[in-house]
Amino acid sequence: MEAATVPAPRTAASAPVAPKPRESRAAKIGRYAGKLPLQILLAVIALLWLVPTLGLFLTSLMPAGSIAEQGWWKVVAHPSQATFANYNALFDNNDLTKALITTAEIAVGNTLILVIVAALAGYAFAWLEFPGRDVLFVIVIGLLVVPIQVALIPIFSLYNTAGLFDTVFGLILFHVAFGMPFAIFLLRNFFAGIPKDILESARIDGASELRIFFKLILPLGLPAIASLAIFQFLWTWNDLIVALTFGRNTQPITVAIFSQLRQFGTNIELIAPASFVSLAIPLMVFLAFQRYFVQGLLAGSVK
Question: In degrees rounded to 5, what are phi and psi of residue 249?
Fold first, then answer.
């Protein structure tokens, strides 16, 4: 007598999937209407943030004789008044063009040095065992609370003795020194979150520490490194107090604009385009790397 065949239980994979009900038009309208107040609020905030930048740009396009007589909003009503003559005068001004080049040298130079040194130090603190590692890292954390104003006078005396005063290299070194604690802290925390198995597998395959650093750590740490580069570039580009303290003939764009404003207070047709160019360059750098920015902000915050 043959045994009765027992039907196999139906698995979850074979169970019929109920179709997702379509959202009605009224539900869609209600969902969008619920988000509308927040979207309007964000749009108003964004507009308020953009108004000063837009006003500066339109002021830089106004003729010299019209700036003191009428507001920048007149350009919106009468676009024919706009002219690029102020920008031609800006790039014909040797002091301001030289200041832009000096600012680029300082910002790019110190950012590159800081990223390279901080990445190497962050990897060492995260994954290499050496005597005094924890003590050194605590010292690095302690340096985060040292205000920059405390070091201005001692470093001023040191720079006079070492011949670094009023040099681009001296300004680069100062920015690197004061940006290093935060850079090491950020990259060390991010590198420590990389799975240990990846590094151990590379070591078993015979990879050296430098090869691991360049082939694994740098590509995986790109979000944090790009975010750090953005921070450092913006801080250095917009610096005024350090450049005023350690520079005399070596003037970044912030000091050059300050000097023009102090010496030629009515020369706004030159100051406005210089200020807008000084604002636009770091803005373009931020937009170029913005996709890494949020990831870098959260680097090392959770593990």
Answer: -90, -20
